[in-house]
Amino acid sequence: MFETKEGILEYLEIEGRRELKGTIEISGAKNSALPNMAATILTEEPVILENIPELLDVQIMIKLLEHIGFSIEELSKGKFLFKQNELNCLDAPYELVSKMRASILVLGPLVARFGYAKVSLPGGCAIGTRPIDLHLKALEKMGASISLEHGYIVAKATKGLKGAEINFEKITVTGTENILMAATLADGITVINNAAREPEVVDLARMLKKMGAKIEGEGTNRIVIQGVKKLNGANHKIIPDRIEAGTFTVLSALFNGNIKLKNYPFQYLDYVHKKLEEIGIYVIPIGNDEVIIRREDTLKPVNIETKEYPFFPTDLQAQFMTLLSIVDGISTITENIFENRFMHVQELERLGANIKVIGKTAFIKGVKELTGAEVQATDLRASAAMVLAGLIAEGKTRIYNIYHLDRGYENIDDKLRKIGAVLKRDFEYIEG
To answer: 89 an active-site residue?
Structure first.
């Protein structure tokens, strides 16, 4: 269990099987907000970002940018002004990077603009290894010298970065974003092959173009960047969060489609919609970025494999496992992205699910119902899966390590209460 220095355990307790009905608005995408915030390093001019979600990871990125020397002002809810003040230091300390691996996104912008960056190695990750060697090899190819000193990556490019052809050995979202940002100020043309195609990468490219960057090919596996001397300020609105949208789509299906979703990013979830339709669940647009969920009386088992965009996202794997745990028949989920992302299986089993893992594949045999229990949120998306499970389980479910939830779901307690959920946060005090 997660324990704070004060010996306090926070948990979320949910009363299951309450009638849920109403509308949930999808927040801005965490995985878009973080790289776009990092990109403000690339200019000395003010940048305004809108639709930034109120999340723990966002707070950490704000602290990191303030540590570097930026002033950040919230103009209105979700709308922030980023402005460079006197630079304090060009580093990202362990105390911040260890709390959020996406802090590595400041590496490319810092070395591109200032010729120097010192960023702590991120350390371990609960859902598996996320090697950053691809970032470093790419920066070296662009002329940076890289050294590891006392747990820190030190990158230097005293004469600036040079355009280069980058061939990623495997698809990496943060690697693509880091090099995309770095290449905007590099001398010459940079080509990123085997680039990530995620909507969040495209959104970053859109913002960079508003700042004066010359980019082509975003959304494909080959991105071409013509470096420029400097970038200007811009005003940009973060896209809606497709993972939050997928999570609440599952929730609505579990409650017979009684939950309408607003600000829904329909165009980013095509493959997810196909899998939902195989199960017997349909997402129907009703105008103004709103959707309703319709489902068949009897849902069908399905086979899912996680893969990079535009295929099924690993970040929805755990939530779909909760859904499939009560679908009659045997479903399979094969996890191809992270080697340690089935830690939620044993927690779902505590709630009564029947799941067996063989290698990279989980075999889910549907049961008639889940029953409340004490469980752990083992990572961000697993925490959402536990919430879904607790809402449909008979009795009370208590979820520990709930801080994971606050990293990626904005005001989720309030959103759920507004549609009828009965839940509360509380603490346990641990001696010793």
So the answer is: no
